[in-house]
Write a structure and sequence with these properties.
It is built from 14 helices and twelve strands. By secondary structure, the protein is of the alpha/beta class. It folds into two domains: 171 residues, Rossmann fold (3-Layer(aba) Sandwich); 183 residues, Dehydroquinate synthase-like - alpha domain (Dehydroquinate synthase-like, alpha domain). Strands 1-2-9-6-5-3-4 form a seven-stranded mixed β-sheet, sandwiched between helices. A three-stranded antiparallel β-sheet has the order 10-11-12. It has a two-stranded antiparallel ribbon with strand order 7-8. The longest helix has 21 residues. The radius of gyration is 20 Å and the shape is globular.
Length: 361
């Protein structure tokens, strides 16, 4: 097991990465003096695979766990599903001396994290991500949220977990599409922060696509370390944490227009990164060769690189509802070659994107 650290003063926490960690999760919670009464929030699919192992480990460590199931999928990541978590916590008399454990992908982690942030004004929680996307992205950094019909993650809070446990053995049950979707966020880290890591991804693309355990473990640890480094500097996205949104502005618009759950988050981000890179090229922040490298790597990992056929007006309207819009101007993350990004204010959203759309024709 490898242990990384997110250093945020009194809100600091470790990230454990290894194989077979679910069977020892009770000991890990005991190490951090986690509350005795535990709500294990999951969905039926993940619970069928892993809940018995986790519940048994918790019980053996002296905990009193209760499994709470909610439906999974982006189309269920909303206030109605969040209410189901609150209802179960209240029904079973959970109080401020309890804790919450999120077992599942990014949807479960985001919803359970927001429930923990808001139930009784905040109870401790632990992230146990079971998909590649959640292991390299949403489980680290303390962003919790649910979607609104008019925009993704519009209702949420910054609330750090006390521990993240990443058991890479859970990736063995993922279908190839889920692996590819997770790798989109991995590729993002190379573009925004580490050119050498991007080269490594190019050289190991086939192993990653095939789900090679050793390659995935390295990619997960590298991604988590990059995100931890950024979050330590800027916990609440007042400066460089916004760099993590590379590809997300247009990606969120795709998810919203297609209907939540129709596109995997990573698939939408992949297209969003291509759109952002083309804008960067138009602004002479990167070269055509940089855009081609990104497109080629995304294609090699079976990710889409062209936007679905919604109208420009629909995309513009969706992006104008983005959290990164202030006073009508959109702030976008644009890459400077490979390994670095910058923030650019876009005043004429429609004009700029109409030019970029022509490059996909």
């Amino acid at each position: 097991m490898d242990v990384l650290q997110v250093s945020l003063g009194e809100r600091s926490y470790p990230i454990h990465v290894g194989s077979g960690l679910l069977s020892a999760i009770g000991e890990r919670l005991r190490d951090i003096k986690f509350p005795h009464q535990v709500a294990l929030v999951s969905n039926p699919l993940v619970a069928d695979l892993y809940a018995d192992t986790v519940m048994s480990s918790l019980q053996q460590a002296g905990y009193d766990p209760r499994l709470m199931l909610v439906p999974d999928g982006e189309d269920y990541k909303n206030l109605e599903t969040l209410q189901l978590i609150y209802d179960q916590l209240i029904e079973h008399r959970f109080d401020r001396g309890c804790g919450l454990l999120a077992l599942g992908g990014g949807v479960i982690g985001d919803m359970a994290g927001f429930a923990a942030a808001s139930f009784l004004r905040g109870i401790p929680f632990v992230q146990v991500p079971t998909t590649l996307l959640s292991q390299v992205d949403s489980s680290v950094g303390g962003k919790t949220a649910v979607n609104h019909p008019r925009g993704k993650n519009l209702i949420g809070a910054f609330y750090q977990p006390q521990l993240v446990v990443i058991d890479v053995a859970t990736l063995q049950t993922l279908d190839p599409r889920e692996v590819s979707a997770g790798l989109a966020e991995v590729i993002k880290y190379g573009v925004i922060r580490d050119a050498d890591f991007f080269v490594w991804l190019e050289e190991h693309q086939e192993l990653l696509r095939q789900g090679d355990a050793e390659a995935l473990v390295y990619a997960i640890k590298k991604s988590c370390q990059i995100k931890a480094d950024i979050v330590e500097i800027d916990e609440r996205e007042s400066s460089i944490r916004a760099h993590l949104n590379f590809g997300h502005t247009f990606g969120h618009a795709i998810e919203n227009l297609a209907g939540y759950g129709q596109w995997k988050h990573g698939e939408a981000v992949a297209v969003g990164m291509v759109v952002a890179a083309k804008i960067s090229q138009a602004k002479e922040l990167c070269r055509e060769a940089d855009v081609s490298r990104l497109i080629n790597l995304l294609r090699a990992i079976d990710l889409p690189v062209e936007p679905p056929a919604f109208s420009l007006a629909a995309y513009v309207e969706a992006m104008q509802r983005d959290k990164k819009v202030k006073h009508g101007a959109l702030t976008m993350v644009l890459n400077q070659g490979i390994g670095s990004v910058t923030l650019e204010q876009i005043d004429d959203i429609e004009g700029l994107f109409s030019t970029i759309f022509d490059t996909f024709a």
